[in-house]
Amino acid sequence: MLQIFNYNAGKGDCIRLRYTGASGIPHNILIDSGVIRFGLEFEAICKQIVANHEKIDVMILSHVDTDHLGGLLYNLRNKTKLNIEEVWMNHGKLMGKNMDLSVRQNDEVYTALKEQGITIKPALAGMTYDLDGAVFRILWPNEETLYQLFPKAFGNVPLGKQSDYGYSLEELMNLLIKGKDASPSNRASIIMEVEYKGQKLLFTGDAWAEDILEVAGNKSYDFMKLSHHGSVRNLSEEWCGRIRCQTYMICTDGISHPDKQTIAKLLKWNDEITIYGSTDWWTGMLTIEDKLKTEKIHFERGEYLWKLPKKE
Predict the structure, then answer these.
(1) How far is CA 307 from the centre of its chain?
(2) What is the pLDDT of residues 212-231, one digit of tens each?
(3) Model-level pTM greater than 0.85?
(4) Of 119, 27, 116, nearest in space to 75 by CA
(5) Distance CA 139, CA 246 (A)
(6) Helices (H), the chain
(7) pLDDT digits (tens, 9 = 90+) for 88-111
């Protein structure tokens, strides 16, 4: 059995995969740790896993932004032991000579993990990890691209967008996606494919749309964690028919993400979709005009969101 938990970590990501290995032993994989103010909740999640007589096999940090590594950083600064077996992350020496705050915080995490004696492994394209019946394939980034992304401090890259909640789903389906993500730190996100008992899942951090298409195009997935909290700038019109999936997770508290056009495009490309969220952010975006369209959208709220369906 495979379970997926999507914790309400503010505007950040914090996901947990729990599955029963071929040996019969349960395994826990944590992907990102939310914002810094999520630190106490993150500590409680880790301690509950241990209290259940299980271990945290792997912690994966998708990229350097604080809304993904903040919870872990909070605990490391407080010298809290979280009983994490190993961490997969890409750190400073892979990122050129860069002194941007988020990169320095990423290196702070790396140094503190080393001090605690936790094993750290890179997560670069082509690497595959097999953990008791589940296969984790790193599709992105490659080392050359990662290094080139961080030659100097880049600061924050504003999206400069307005809410699209005033449009109907029908209107947004027919409007072309305008603009795309330009953040180097988002482009450095780990894109990871997980295969377990014939099911395929895709986790994308905050990756750029074109990079997701490059490594995951012409594939079918049973589950996909959407990039960058559901921002439409991390989707592409070229995904249509090339990335096939009907079940999605969006990690957000609904304050600044997701874009309504993201939902509209996924529905247009797939006819019927299921979207999981840790909060019911969708109640603020849907209008009376959307009623017919929403019959084909299944919104599911909760921190324990998805159980692996059995394939015939």
Answers:
(1) 18
(2) 999 999 999 999 999 999 99
(3) yes
(4) 116
(5) 21
(6) 39-51, 66-77, 101-115, 143-149, 169-174, 184-187, 209-216, 260-270, 291-294
(7) 998 755 544 444 556 678 888 988
